[in-house]
From TrEMBL:
Keyword Protein biosynthesis: no
Protein name per UniProt: Uncharacterized protein
Disordered, as annotated region: 1-34
Family: Belongs to the truncated hemoglobin family. Group II subfamily.
Length: 134
């Protein structure tokens, strides 16, 4: 299934709305304008537009880029609520595209949760007893 294609103006409107409802310090160490640009370019690229994000920053590598943040189940649910609110307040995006986008957002959110869980599992994993045996 191809990702929905949305007009750039709608993407910018969506990301601006998202940034206005996101909790403060949700992107520590980065400026709000940078976060808006990153998310805008990523969404444009992911939704079928030109590869703006990859041209500027390289491969998205979502798990790696989100590694500094605690991406918990609760955080994913909160982000999805913000995304739904942002979509609901962006009338330029048709209902079918909104549904497809929320499906993508849901998949991505819990993909990042799984990546975060793996990060902690690898930090706490005991060494296999067979590693040193020959």
């Amino acid at each position: 299934m191809r990702s929905p294609s949305i007009p750039p103006i709608s993407s910018r409107s969506l990301v601006s709305r998202l940034s206005s409802i996101s909790p403060p310090n949700s992107t520590p160490g980065s400026k709000k304008e940078d976060a808006i640009r990153n998310q805008y370019e990523f969404f444009v690229q992911r939704m079928g537009g030109p590869p703006l994000y990859s041209q500027r920053k390289g491969h998205p590598a979502l798990i790696g880029r989100h590694r500094p943040f605690p991406v918990t189940h609760l955080a994913a649910e909160r982000w999805l609520q913000h995304m739904q609110q942002a979509l609901d307040s962006t009338p330029e995006i048709d209902p079918d595209s909104k549904t497809k986008m929320m499906n993508f957002f849901r998949h991505t959110a819990f993909f990042l949760v799984a990546g975060d869980q793996l990060k902690y599992q690898s930090q706490q994993a005991p060494t296999c007893k067979h590693v040193h045996s020959k």
